[in-house]
Amino acid sequence: PGEGDAAVLRVKGTARGLAVSLDCNSRYCWLDPGLGARHAVAEAARNVSCVGGRPLALTNCLNFGNPARPAGYFQLREAVQGIADASAVFTIPVVSGNVSLYNETARSAVLPTPTIGVVGVLDDVSRHATMRWQDGDVVVLLGGGQPVLGGSEYLAVTTGETFGAPPPLDLAAEMALVGLVRNQIAAGAVRTAHDVGLGGIAVALAEMAILSGTGFVADAGAVPADRAAWFGESATRILVALPDAGVAGLERAAATDGVSVRRLGAVGGQGLSVGDAAVMVEDLARVWDHALADRASGSEGA
């Protein structure tokens, strides 16, 4: 736990392991309950796959307001259908669940939050991936999800509002991507993988750098210099880091599976460096480590 996108647990007395992830983006679900629920299933399956797990089963906790009100009923109906649709595509059975309704005050209800838990299996737990990269690794973006700012963490932080359309979700493309990553991890070709989620590529790279204690230098022009490219969110994107000698093999496997590949840069140095700009990893780690205390004291951003 804490090293990768999902917790990895060894099954005592065997070579196998379990991977477990819990996910839901309630902002997406507020903007589009059906799409948001499909995203929750896809993200949980993606996170399990990013450590090398093969998703086996799904559970849920459906947190909503009053279903007797038109808005509450609509949100619950659409979310349940979204879970069913995504689970069918991934062939992950929904084996259990919990419902928590009437979560509201006289003024407003909670954001619709169909939390999804996925458990998967690793046949060889010694071959699992984490978010840790190594100095000299090449960082590659797998998948062609188009980042958008609608419903994003960036908008929530910078404006305090939730608006726009969440990113689209192609479940077939998602299946191809996570299958590729799982196979590469099982083969020992990839040991570092992290999905691009809240906050986009910028936050995903920062999380990997903080955990690894090592920076990243972006290739010139690898990511366009605009907010959506760096902080926009989408499904169907995973960052992997691997030695340069393994990139060609990954590209061949990705081409076979119909997954796009784009080199972003290389691991090295003590900062996240893009052109002439850089943020030191130790500064990122300090903000990350003290975020809760700073928020409680009102000193965040100081």
From TrEMBL:
Alphabetical keyword list: Cytoplasm, Ligase
Gene Ontology biological process: 'de novo' IMP biosynthetic process
UniProt keyword Nuclease present: no
InterPro entries given in the database record: PRibForGlyAmidine_synth_PurL, PurM-like_C_dom, PurM-like_C_sf, PurM-like_N, PurM-like_N_sf
Pfam family of the protein (one): AIRS_C
Record's keyword annotation contains Cytoplasm: yes
Domain PurM-like C-terminal: 134-271
Position of the signal peptide: none
Domain PurM-like N-terminal: 4-121
Known EC number: 6.3.5.3
One example GO MF annotation: phosphoribosylformylglycinamidine synthase activity
Domain of life: Bacteria
Name of the protein described by the UniProt record: Phosphoribosylformylglycinamidine synthase, synthetase subunit
Natural source organism: uncultured Thermomicrobiales bacterium
Lineage, top ranks: Bacteria, Pseudomonadati, Thermomicrobiota, Thermomicrobia, Thermomicrobiales
